[in-house]
Amino acid sequence: MGGWAIAVHGGAGIDPNLPAERQEEAKQLLTRCLNLGIVALRSNISAIDVVELVIRELETDPLFNSGRGSALTEKGTVEMEASIMDGKKRRCGAVSGITTVKNPISLARLVMDKSPHSYLAFSGAEDFARKQGVEIVDNEYFVTDDNVGMLKLAKEANSILFDYRIPPMGCAGAAATDCPLQMNGLPISIYAPETVGCVVVDGEGRCAAGTSTGGLMNKMMGRIGDSPLIGAGTYASEFCGVSCTGEGEAIIRATLARDVSAVMEYKGLNLQEAVDYVIKHRLDEGFAGLIAVSNKGEVVCGFNSNGMFRGCATEDGFMEVAIWE
Amino acid sequence: MVGWAIALHGGAGDIPIDLPDERRIPRETALRHCLDLGVSALKSGEPPLDVAELVVRELENHPDFNAGKGSVLTTQGTVEMEASIMDGKTKRCGAVSGLTTVVNPVSLARLVMEKTPHIYLAFDAAEAFARAHGVETLESSHFITPENIARLKQAKEFNRVQLDYTVPTPKVPDNCGDSQIGTVGCVAVDGAGNLASATSTGGYVNKMVGRIGDTPVIGAGTYANHLCAISATGKGEEIIRGTVSRDVAALMEYKGLSLTEAAAYVVGQSVPRGSCGLVAVSANGEVTMPFNTTGMFRACATEDGYSEIAIWPNN
Question: What ipTM was reported for this prediction?
């Protein structure tokens, strides 16, 4: 016990028919990101810096739904959001409605460090980004052919599509309609696919967490999910760091990330017990997953969804990358 | 079965003790009027969700509170309003940000909750959604009052918002030492223990365009479940970090504290002095209105006949 620990995720709720090569690609990306984080932790880089650099890597890679490779809005554009939190003093930063900033997580960090506020959105956030001199690109940069195809399918199915990362031919249409994962008493399935996140506790026991996403495929413009909301998608305290993924509305309603820390603080549960508790009791009919680290160097993943892309590692040499139960 | 209860606020902050009558009396009168409206709705059996919404609408329409008409101005002299609402029984919620023409942000938040599969819509899209649903909108000049234009000017002159980005801990301005502060909100419970909360605001004076505060963040400014309903007000950034409204409920759930104990703990320990106040009711009809600021515009009433309208601490 003690020492550093890190976990990353690439989203919860995965098509059971996801082709093997896609699963492999995902695992390789998760491994690569874990290794980046591990090298940084071994160089004594602080938890908050590690969280940011790992999420930047996930945003830059087009595989998962964040930064480049984000899910598309109903208009075929990308609108991203992210949040980051430093457990030490519970400082936080968040952004929404980002359309030209290459790395939303870094903008969230700048909001935390360089502005008098905690949360900036849309044109105000974009203006702040320019004043801070962050890297700006056209919105097209974030749009991938895969997602253009997925959006078309989503519109045809007239539903918010659970983003399976299946190639846009053959089985995808069928999977969308006889998707066994539609739920929640609403006419559309509302998974938030493949949000990315990272949680870290460094060698000094400081916890940090971050989450980044493009949101739901075919979402309404201006729709904000759980990822930028402190306490919902992201939370860090002196006790733990948490990043969530899955059905955004269920995560918000459950204040899922905050609750992991709250049951540790107020019920005295340890990290594993806390994660088990919130997944079991706080999600009602919703489906979600989360990764968490504690100030004692523990790392836990928990989910009630059909799988979660995840990886974790600890200083004593443990490392695991997984998709299913 | 216990009785109904209601509490509402018009903002917590550095409300000067020597607030002149012409600023104090209209606000007290408004608080009384809103309390009466809420009480009479509860007595007629209106669901707490409807009661919370109608009281907040009334506070939004009143130009002397920082929500709807009378919202404070961004650094560009514009209005950007936000609101949220939560139904404790189902934990369904709705939130909006970046509104510029919607007359009643809290009602738009309710529409988001009821008419979309989402929880939170913002800026241009929220405005478009409002129009698509025929929600009442007015030119932004409707919302901007001469007092707020003056406040913005004053804030810029005194440079209250520290735009010096080398400051590591965000500094939040006190609102020019006068009475247009915080947020408005209402929490209500009926005799059957159904709870609801709603909060609405213009943010704070001279805020950056696009700045979102605690008000639309579920768990920060607004929260309701089967145990209690909370609406918070004060320095948004602190309320977000402190997940204030969720924490009151969490302390009740996880530590078995009473509503009053939980609320006192959060306001006393989880947020810095001078940053926060809240109103809360519980499923068994308790009411509490703690704050760690100079004052908080507030009012409450319970079925057993208690009622209170106040600004500063009671003792």
Answer: 0.92
